[in-house]
TrEMBL record:
Pfam family membership, one: DAO
Matching InterPro entries: FAD-dep_OxRdtase, FAD/NAD-bd_sf
SUPFAM superfamilies: FAD/NAD(P)-binding domain (SSF51905)
Domain FAD dependent oxidoreductase: residue ranges: 16-369
Protein name (record): Glycine/D-amino acid oxidase-like deaminating enzyme
PANTHER family: FAD DEPENDENT OXIDOREDUCTASE DOMAIN-CONTAINING PROTEIN (PTHR13847:SF281), SARCOSINE DEHYDROGENASE-RELATED (PTHR13847)
Any single Gene Ontology cellular-component annotation: cytoplasm
Tree of life domain: Bacteria
Length: 371
């Protein structure tokens, strides 16, 4: 494609920072760059019509980990690492709320609930045994006991009679969050080009030469915030992890409020606009879900529908409205990868399914690396 003089001059000349990916990390990175370097020219490249990974496709949980997830993390991370991860997630959520305001993102702190199935009695009892120890471990962060016990008051079936309740967990409207982020970025004069894919890049004496499916240009610096798609560009230990989601049509008198975790966090649901938004099931076929294809599978969609009927809405008639999927970035460690890859290239990836919680902070941490 041949661009005009005006297009080259206005969009692709004297670029100080090019950010690849317009999700939570990329947009927050752009905001932080503009705050640190007010005169910098910043360009964001996005391969989709909308942010393509999980930023516009997640369930809107403002969470930091359920009891069973934290216990699972302790199998592969030290206590210090787990405490630091939880603190990072809390700090990230606070930064998100301060940047955009609670009103703009429809933040509500209705609490989070972890449900255990009847078949998981042994696992449930093992979690309860360690509840007080986990509360003690993270009490310095919250100044209170986080994980409490509540009776099943929502009429769920085929689960243990007691939930593990976390009053510190919240929820947001994902669409409002991304709309507000995009508005803030564009108000500051940061340009975004959509439907453009980076095909290759090369360090040069002046910065980075960037080749896309549409155009080639020079940028002083290049920053990858592509999370689950990171391995398409850089050699970091990030695997894609697809998350499938469905949503019901509106349900009259839907009394369920809060955010809910089931089966070690592999399933999750909430009420949004009197609908149940329900996602998960990656654990049914980890290998098949290690993909960047934004598709749904019969195996997982059927399991989600089954759990809706047998556990979540056993006495309620409902219809599925539609379903979708998003791509997370995961790895053997829950720690995000924030690093300088060369003189002019940086990355902030592998958010481990906690993009809402840590995306804002990862964007800031990238900028902290830049002098």
């Amino acid at each position: 494609m041949n661009l005009s003089y005006w297009e080259i001059k206005s969009w692709l000349t004297n670029i100080d920072y090019t950010i690849v990916g317009s999700g939570i990390v990329g947009l927050n990175c752009a905001l932080q760059l503009k705050q640190k370097f007010p005169k910098a020219t910043i360009l964001i490249l996005e391969k989709g019509m909308l942010p393509q990974g999980a930023s516009t496709k997640n369930a809107g949980f403002a969470c930091f980990g359920s009891l069973s997830e934290i216990l699972d993390d302790l199998k592969s991370h030290s206590e210090e690492d787990v405490v630091n991860l939880i603190k990072k997630r809390l700090d990230g959520l606070l930064l998100l709320r301060q940047t955009l305001t609670d009103q703009a993102i429809y933040y509500q702190q209705l609490g989070g609930y972890e449900l255990f199935t009847k078949e998981d009695t042994q696992f449930f009892e093992a979690c309860l045994e360690k509840r007080e120890a986990i509360n003690s471990l993270i009490k310095p962060i919250f100044n209170d006991d986080v994980f409490q016990l509540k009776k099943n008051g929502f009429g769920f079936k085929n689960i243990q009679d007691t939930y593990v309740f976390n009053p510190f967990e919240g929820q947001i409207d994902t669409g409002k969050m991304m709309e507000t982020l995009l508005q803030k970025v564009q108000f500051l004069g940061i340009k975004i080009l959509n439907n453009i894919t980076v095909e290759s890049f090369e360090d040069t004496s002046k910065g980075v030469h960037v080749k896309t499916n549409q155009v080639e240009f020079e940028s002083q610096n290049l920053i990858f915030t592509t999370n689950g798609f990171a391995s398409q560009h850089i050699s970091e230990k990030v695997k894609p992890a697809r998350a499938q989601v469905l949503i019901t049509k509106p349900i009259k008198n839907l009394h369920i409020k809060g955010t809910f975790h089931l089966d070690k966090g592999y399933y999750y649901f909430r009420n949004i606009d009197n609908r149940i938004l329900f996602g998960g099931g990656r654990n049914l076929d980890f290998k098949a879900e290690e993909t960047t294809q934004l598709e749904q599978t019969e195996l997982i969609q059927n399991k989600l529908k089954e759990l809706l009927k047998t556990v979540i809405l056993p006495e309620t008639n409902f219809e599925i409205d539609y379903s979708w999927s998003g791509i997370m970035g995961v790895g053997s460690s829950k720690k995000p990868i924030v690093k300088q890859l060369s003189d002019h290239i940086y990355c902030g990836v592998r958010l481990g399914g906690m993009g809402v919680a840590i995306g804002s902070l990862v964007g800031k941490e990238i900028v902290d690396l830049i002098e």
